[in-house]
Amino acid sequence: MADTTVKIDDQTRDRFQALAADAGMSMRAYLAQLAVEMETQQKLGTATAAFRAAIARPGFAEAFDRDFSDDALRPARTPSQAA
Description:
Layout: H1 10-22, H2 27-56, H3 60-68, H4 70-73, H5 79-82
Helix pairs in contact: 1-2
């Protein structure tokens, strides 16, 4: 992958260099990791919003309890097991 130059002020560069050094990483590796972490946070935010919208729907909690209760998760007993 080709390198590129990003123009940032000296103070921001120094902050990134200090953070990278504290993490024992080069600034290149630190910024790459930071990008991955920020993408993950965005995806978590999207998933959280979708979850909150789902649980706000009427009947969602009741359906969840019905489908995922202890009884619903137990394997069905066969006639030979019941005897």
